[in-house]
Amino acid sequence: MKLPHWFFSFTLLICAVSFGQNEKQYKVTTIAFYNVENLFDYEDDPLIFDDDRTPEGKDHWTQEIYEAKLANMAKVISEIGEDVTGTSPTIIGLSEIENRRVLEDLLNQAPLVSKDYGIVHFDSPDRRGIDVALLYQKKLFTPTNYKAYELLLYDDEDRSKRIYTRDQLLVSGMLDGEKIHVIVNHWPSRSGGEARSRPKRIKAAELNRHIMDSLFSEDPYAKIITMGDLNDDPTNQSVKDILKAKSEREDMKLKELYNPMEDMFKKGLGTLAYRDGWNLFDQIIISTELTKKEYSSYRFYKAGIFNKNYLATPRGQYKGYPFRSFVNGYTGGYSDHFPVFIYLIKEK
């Protein structure tokens, strides 16, 4: 399956759009999410199960491989939205990162170092040690509050046994003078089968909805973006019934959610492939206030999947699938997921 590229004809940060005889100019900013597929350093951390990702481990994860992986991730991040805005994302959520060190090393790569990104990150209780994080361009976004919310899961047969997984990260701050809230997610996997693991993602969705409802209780007009690898598609129960995310942005009421990824999914687009089928687990979902078509402040304009040719497997059985960085050894690839993004625009 060949996925189309997303291209919008803007000029750097400002675009001109004609409405009848009136021409208005707009600022454009990119918000993105990327599952970077096990971005681990090469040193053993005795507190987590990272033994495979060491030079002596099963994956023979050396400093050389680590540095190649960093370079690849930095290249991708630097190019998301660049053709439209002239820069990398203002805000990008990441999943499957091991610790703060890998984030600092990532931001010191040549394509990103001049962007002066800040980091919001907490170590999560995930057994493998993989976390979520948020990166932001300091000149464009200023965090004011941030918090990690634990997802409490327990074994079905032994309720005293906790299942440790990723936190959900809430970051609130000012984007060009406007308050927005961003939640970064990496919901429980489908290990053991979709149906058997579904209750874990239902719990994740309930926590996510609780965080948003708390924000709405303080401000019904809150601009909220929840993003991440949900390990569910836009049409699954966790997203449709628990988050109650809608596929149409028209006639939305206060405190509702719009999911621009659902229409893409129904058209056969995806961010990862498995057994000859595509899933769209990586999603960016927004609150009512961002969907309005009145652009005196930042509003949603477009959503996309960043799937340039170099991010796809070039040949063989999995041609066209995301070009993974590791399959029985380092491949030189990128990730088993494509990144996703949205553009927000407002009148200049």
Index terms:
single chain; 348 residues; alpha+beta; seven-stranded mixed beta sheet; 8 helices; 18 strands; disordered N terminus; nuclease; endonuclease; Endonuclease; Endo/exonu/phosph_ase_sf
Please provide a written account of the structure.
Helices cover 21% and strands 32% of the residues. It is of the alpha+beta class and 348 residues long. Strands 1, 2, 3, 4, 5, 17 and 18 form a 7-stranded mixed beta sheet that branches. Strand 10 (178-186), helix 5 and strand 11 (224-229) form a beta-alpha-beta unit. The longest helix has 25 residues, at 194-218.
Radius of gyration: 20 Å
Assembly type: single chain
Q: What are the low-pLDDT stretches, counting only 5+ consecutive residues below 50?
A: 1-21
Give the termini distance in whole angstroms: 39 Å
Proportion in β-strands: 25-35%
Strand elements, count: 18
What portion of residues is helical?
Answer: 10-25%
**Shape, principal axes of CA atoms:** globular
**Number of helical regions:** 8
Q: How can the largest sheet be summarized?
A: 7 strands, mixed
GO molecular function, one term: endonuclease activity
Organism: Aequorivita vladivostokensis
Pfam family, one: Exo_endo_phos_3
InterPro entries: Endo/exonu/phosph_ase_sf, Endo/exonuclease/phosphatase
